[in-house]
């Protein structure tokens, strides 16, 4: 592992063999399940406390119990990343949408303009909220959360959705500022 082609910043990215055993095991699980170690994890490996915090929050938001499906969570990641023009996350999460949905066109619609995609009313409400909370957070009102309730979201799901939007806005900014590059494998997944 090194930081060549991961981020433009000169970070002291350790070799896999130099990482603590629990981090190595986590990276091995990623390699086994995904066929790669996501560059975002490689980048964060220069600061193990930040890596731990990032992965714990990511795993809870993306894989934890909740009303949002894995596909819906990935759709939110793509729409937030589209609003922010985050190349890393658009490529990585766009690939996940293609894989999970089995629909390569859906991934492309969400990357370019989710409003042009054929979506269920629940998905449309969710993505409208994610877009607005990303672009104009001070303009989010009770009417926006009510629109989610009307689309079938519980208050717990709205909380989870809001946390997901916040997480991707944060990670988009880190990826953009560091010029983080997506793993090349993402580009060809489910095409």
TrEMBL record:
SUPFAM superfamilies: AhpD-like. The keyword Disulfide bond does not apply. Residues 52-98 form the Carboxymuconolactone decarboxylase-like domain. GO terms for molecular function: peroxiredoxin activity. Signal peptide: none annotated. The keyword Oxidoreductase applies. Keywords: Oxidoreductase, Peroxidase. This is Alkylhydroperoxidase. It comes from Marinobacter lutaoensis.
């Amino acid at each position: 592992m090194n930081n060549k082609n991961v981020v433009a910043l000169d970070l002291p990215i350790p070799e896999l063999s130099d990482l603590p055993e629990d981090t190595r095991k986590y990276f091995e699980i990623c390699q086994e399940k995904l066929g790669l170690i996501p560059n975002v994890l490689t980048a964060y490996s220069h600061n193990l406390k930040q890596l731990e915090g990032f992965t714990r929050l990511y795993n809870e938001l993306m894989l934890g119990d909740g009303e949002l499906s894995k596909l819906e969570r990935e759709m939110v990641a793509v729409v937030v990343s589209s609003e922010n023009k985050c190349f890393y996350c658009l490529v990585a999460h766009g690939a996940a949408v293609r894989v999970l949905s089995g629909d390569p066109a859906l991934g492309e619609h969400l990357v370019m303009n989710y409003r042009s995609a054929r979506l269920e009313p629940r998905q449309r409400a969710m993505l409208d909220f994610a877009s607005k909370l990303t672009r104009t957070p001070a303009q989010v009102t009770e009417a926006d959360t009510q629109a989610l309730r009307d689309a079938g979201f519980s208050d717990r799901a709205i909380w989870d959705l809001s946390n997901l939007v916040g997480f991707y806005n944060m990670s988009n900014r880190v990826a953009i500022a560091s010029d983080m590059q997506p793993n090349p494998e993402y580009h060809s997944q489910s095409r």
